[in-house]
Write a structure and sequence with these properties.
InterPro entries: LTTR, LysR_HTH_N, LysR_subst-bd, WH-like_DNA-bd_sf, WH_DNA-bd_sf. The protein is α/β, with parallel strands linked by helices. It is built from 9 helices and 11 strands.
Length: about 300
């Protein structure tokens, strides 16, 4: 049995689509289909059932997943054994909520790639947690620690959020001395039914029931606040990138959250991923501390 065919099988099983698996593997969908058919012929059983929702595993396909993943881990271990001890190379895909993906990971990825010239980092900004079982990413950053799934969960760092407004907006609207004053101001926040984690429900801390402008994206919310559309809760580490913003009611609204690093349990034995996770965690902590310090230096 060809390992490369098993690799293609796993991609289809995880993506439930020939075209999506092809994009992951860098080949066209028809080639993926032919390789799956070749594997099915070699095994003597159908591995997938085509449905309106995509490609679903048959019973034979379900039985093949575990040995195929064992072969995948062995192939990864063999590849790691041939790499230079002095450096870390290859591709690393990180899934992250867009606040982290926009304001932390670009400079962290730049530093890591400079330190490891053979490293290629892909940042997937998502309004949800990346599905590691389907291998959407090698590791994921989350705002809460999941209690289900075959995952290795590591606390990364605490971070702070602040109510903020654009300087001109604040100068041109009624003064804000208490939470009650917020009722006279427009608020920016998340779309309520698109909050994928309870830790993102920031608006309740302000006592204001609804937002005038809402988005499932932290970056869109930030740009709306920057445009003077109203007040909103923003990451402290993001505020140095938008110097027009000013903290509001800092003594009355103080939110603290945590970032968590998630990895698939099967990757625990990967020396390469262990080293990358350790470096990523350290750099995230340092960058949050650096940016939050800059915020108060400029206050």
């Amino acid at each position: 049995m060809d390992w490369d065919d098993l690799r293609i099988f796993l991609a289809v099983a995880r993506d439930e689509s020939l075209s999506a698996a092809g994009r992951r593997l860098g080949m066209d969908a028809s080639t993926v289909g032919r390789r799956v058919a070749r594997l099915e012929s070699a095994i003597g059983s159908a591995l997938f059932l085509k449905t309106p929702q995509g490609y679903a595993l048959t019973e034979a396909g379900e039985r093949l997943v575990a040995p195929a993943e064992t072969a995948e881990q062995a192939a990864q271990a063999a590849a790691e054994a041939t790499r230079r001890e002095a450096g870390i190379s290859g591709q690393l895909r990180i899934g992250a909520p867009d606040g982290c993906a926009n304001y932390l990971l670009p400079q962290i990825a730049s530093a890591m790639c400079a330190a490891h010239p053979g490293l290629e980092i892909q940042i997937v900004a998502q309004p949800r947690v990346a599905n590691l079982s389907r291998r959407e990413a090698d590791m994921a950053i989350s705002v809460s620690a999941p209690d289900t799934g075959r995952l290795v969960v590591q606390r990364l760092s605490e971070y702070r959020l602040h109510l903020a407004g654009q300087a001109d907006y604040l100068a041109g609207h009624p003064p804000i001395r208490s939470l009650d004053d917020l009722k006279r101001h427009a608020m920016i926040g998340y779309i309520p039914d698109m909050i994928f984690d309870r830790e993102l429900d920031y608006l309740s801390a302000t006592g204001v029931a609804s937002a005038v402008i809402s988005s499932n994206s932290v970056s869109v919310q930030m740009q709306a606040i920057r445009a003077g559309a109203g007040l909103g809760i923003v990451h402290g580490f993001a505020m140095p990138f938008v110097p027009e913003l000013r903290p509001v009611l800092g003594d009355q609204i103080a939110l603290t959250r945590n970032f968590w690093l998630l990895r698939h349990a099967d990757d625990r034995a990967s020396r390469r991923l262990n080293l990358l996770a350790e470096e990523l965690a350290g750099r995230i902590r340092q960058e949050i501390q650096r940016l939050e310090a800059l915020l108060w230096q400029g206050a």
